[in-house]
Amino acid sequence: MRHRRLSALPRSYRFSLPRSTLRRRLRSLRAARALLAAVGFAGLGIAPVDAAAAATGVSPLPFRREVIDASIRIGYGLAIADVDGDGREDLLLADAREIAWYRSPDWQKTVIARDLTTKDHVCIAARDLDGDGRAEIAVGAGWNPGDTVGSGAIFFLERPTDAAQPWTPRALPHEPTTHRMHWIDDGRGAPLLAVLPLHGRGNRDGAGAGVKFLGYRWLANGSVATAAEEIDATLHLTHNFEPPSPGSADHELLVAAKEGVHALRPSGGGWARRQVTSHPAGEVRRGRASDGSGFIATIEPMHGHQVVVYPQGQDAERVVLDESLVQGHGLATGDLLGRGHDQIIAGWRGNMVGPPTPVGIRLYAATTASATRWELVGAIDDNTVACEDLRVADLDRDGDLDVVAAGRASRNVVIFWNERVPARRASATPR
Ligand SMILES: [Ca+2]
Ligand SMILES: [Ca+2]
Ligand SMILES: [Ca+2]
User: How far is the CA of 109 from the centre of ligand 3 (A)?
Assistant: First the structure.
């Protein structure tokens, strides 16, 4: 017999299950309720959802929402760096047709490049490399994940002497499906522009040649080497990567791939690779538990529905925090609540085809010192940003971490100001 929705069946049919089946189901339900009463949601490794707020999501957290742009196209990639050298970190955005920055603290928008390729821009990396206090900027473009041969582009943007003028794009050699980039330190001198494509050359359905993860060295003359250094060429569907922690001695970076999370670190003249987790992942970040151990957070699989933690980076310790995301696409870690250990912030962008689904950004916190158990603390955003990318930083320099997110279907860039300390909220700390 074909399945039919229960509500579509005649009422008499709905209650025609055999008594033995009903008794068995009742026993299972009672056992589940008894277990929940004994250990609580956190004990089960899942989070309670506030019943009162269930209609719109979970309980809101004390973040004040400020829309700084309500008319972007896609909002592919965000970065945070001081662009104008005034000592305040600004926001940068790789949008479909524009590369722009928003000046702190008034968030005035300046477009520094347009239409670098006929296909969309997709990623941006910004960091002061020469020590003058102003960011050097690189961007990725030519975005078409369906073209694993002819797509992709990488540009270093040369700063104009007149700030009102556009920046000059200098093209670098690239692999198809350019997707994510960071300026990283690998312990070998000048910073490296690490660029991760989504697919290997000529791949179909995420299979074929490994993804060519390449690095381009910053040069003393203020340009970038056009000869690339290979970081890895073994993985597939490499959707994102976590750069090395600032100041880390081992310079390890983490890649989220079809083959799970892999750690890459400089070794000899090349890079050594180590598999960390075994589940396909789309986003990856590292964080610090209150006992000092490190954990790894992921969204699984790529564009997935799960927020996952690996305490101490151990595959066998996998904890699923949430399975209700639709197209999970933004992930960050940081101590937003001031608890002395990192929380996890995850955002999702909702259905890409068909009717829109609710979107949001949620915050999860560990309830044990070693980050083996977690709870959903609340919502930073409830259905206003179809999260394509998010970043965490203390944007108003008041001592706590704020969240900035770019929304795809919602076409906005929004700062969520952290107002967890009521005194600060009341005094409206000047930014
Ligand atoms: Ca600035
Ligand atoms: Ca600079
Ligand atoms: Ca702040």
Answer: 20
Could you tell me what percentage of the chain is helix, strand and coil, using 3-state DSSP and rounding each to the nearest 5?
10, 40, 50
Query: What pLDDT is recorded for position 164?
Result: 82
Q: How far is CA 378 from the centre of its chain?
A: 18
Say how many residues make up the chain: 431
Q: How many angstroms does the Cα of residue 23 sit away from the middle of ligand 1?
A: 66
**CA dist 122 to 73, 135, 145, 232, 352, Å?**
12, 19, 11, 21, 17
Q: What are the tokens at 306?
A: 């799960």
Measure 133 CA to ligand 2 centroid, in angstroms.
5
Residue 184, Ramachandran bin (φ over 0: left; ψ between -120 and 50: alpha; else beta):
beta
Protein residues with C-beta less than 5 angstroms from the ion ligand 1: 82, 84, 86, 88, 90
What is the pLDDT averaged over residues 24-39? 43
- 85 Cα to the center of ligand 2, angstroms: 8
* Statement: residue 16 has pLDDT above 70: no
Q: pLDDT digits over 96-111, tens only?
A: 999 999 999 999 999 9
Positive or negative, the CA dihedral 191, 391, 412, 47 is positive
Ligand minimally distant from the alpha carbon of residue 334: 3
CA of 429 to the centre of ligand 3 (A): 9
- In the sheet where 387-393 sits, what is the strand order? 63-69, 413-418, 402-407, 387-393
Question: 13 in helix, strand or coil?
Answer: helix
Q: Which amino acid is at 215?
A: G
Q: What is the mean pLDDT of residues 256-265?
A: 98
Ligand 1 centre distance from Cα of residue 90 (Å)? 5
Pick from 416, 430, 423: which is nearest to 62 by CA?
A: 416
Q: CB of 78 within 8 A of CB of 421?
A: no
**pLDDT tens-digit series, residues 193-245:** 999 999 999 999 999 999 999 999 999 999 999 999 999 999 999 999 999 99
